Amino acid sequence: MTDSGLSFYQALAPMYDHLTAGDDYEALGQSLANVLAPVTTGPRLLDVATGTGRSAEIWRRLGYQVIGCDLSFEMLRSANVKRSLAGIPLAACDMRRLPFLSSRFDVVTCVDDAVNHLGDEADLLASFSEARRVLAPGGVYLFDVNSAAAYAWFDEEHVLRHDDSLFVWRGRPAAEPGKHCAEVIALRRTPGGWQGTEGTLTETYFDRKLLRRCLGRAGLTVLGAYGWRDGGLVLSGSEEVGPKTYWVTRVAT
Ligand SMILES: C[S@@+](CC[C@H](N)C(=O)[O-])C[C@H]1O[C@@H](n2cnc3c(N)ncnc32)[C@H](O)[C@@H]1O
Predict the structure, then answer these.
(1) What is the number of the ligand 1 atom nearest to the C-alpha of 96?
(2) N or C end of the chain: which has fewer CB within 10 A?
(3) Do residue 52 and residue 164 come from a single domain?
């Protein structure tokens, strides 16, 4: 993640859950659980880029023994005060260098717009290799990436409103191929008035060929790539279905 991206998440942390309150994590979590259940071999789960722990909450409710980690200390601080996450260990670290012993987990997850914060193929390979290293034999790595359709949206201007929060988004393709940049203003109405922050997010689009190459080099076998349609996950073959693709992979034998 760029320094400005990290600063933005640090400042966004107290507002993050309000701004994402409209996202249906329950439906997504249940669908992902249905995909994970037949392929996972144990309950020990590392939620990489857990942020304020919204994804970690879902995995815990589904019965996994969760540890969360994230690059942003402030996002983790917001996670740390949630009762629903009490007892879940949290670690501040970069997904390219995980501070965990090898073969420590049965499942590694990294969902909702985290992998695209990586800068290039070397970063992608480093993060996949680390996920592979901390997985036990037969372990499963699940992550999502934004599709080309998501970046068509990303590159435009939007004003998003949800109850007492407001997101002003001004995106554009960056000069470097595959990079996308957005100036973002996030505001939340509090009893004391509007509070907000602004920042710049830079993301990288990774196509399927590149993702498959890095997964293979990291020692991960693709079990399936899923898109989101009509409120559920669908196997998306070579086509991208919806704004994200969810990759389910396993430690190669
Ligand atoms: C949109 S949030 C998603 C958080 C959470 N998984 C969820 O579902 O709500 C993306 C998170 O990725 C984290 N992140 C970005 N780059 C990272 C990196 N290199 N290592 C670890 N975390 C990173 C950010 O700090 C941020 O908390």
Answers:
(1) 19
(2) C
(3) no
In sequence order, the 6+-apart residues with CB closer than 8 A to the CB of 187 are: 165, 166, 167, 168, 194, 195, 196
Domain count within the chain: 2
**Which residue has the CA at smallest separation from atom 27 of ligand 1?**
51
Q: Is the pLDDT of residue 15 over 80?
A: yes
Query: Residues near 100 by Cβ (< 8 Å), separated by ≥ 6?
Result: 46, 67, 91, 134
Please tell me the distance between residue 4's alpha carbon and the centre of ligand 1 in angstroms: 14
- Beta pairing, strands 90-92 & 65-70: parallel
Query: Among the residues of 20-94, which ranges form H helices?
Result: 25-36, 54-61, 73-80
Domain CATH code at residue 139: 3.40.50.150
Query: Considering only CA atoms, which of 142, 146, 150 is closest in space to residue 223?
Result: 142
Kindly list the distances between the CA atom of residue 23 and the CA atoms of 8, 16, 103, 112, in Å, as whole numbers in the listed order: 20, 11, 33, 10
Q: Which one-letter amino acid corresponds to residue 16?
A: Y
Tell me the per-residue pLDDT of 62-98, one tens digit each, with 9 for 90 and over.
Answer: 999 999 999 999 999 999 999 999 999 999 999 999 9
Structural domain of residue 189, as residue ranges?
A: 150-203
State the Cα–Cα distance between residues 185 and 12, nearest whole angstrom: 10
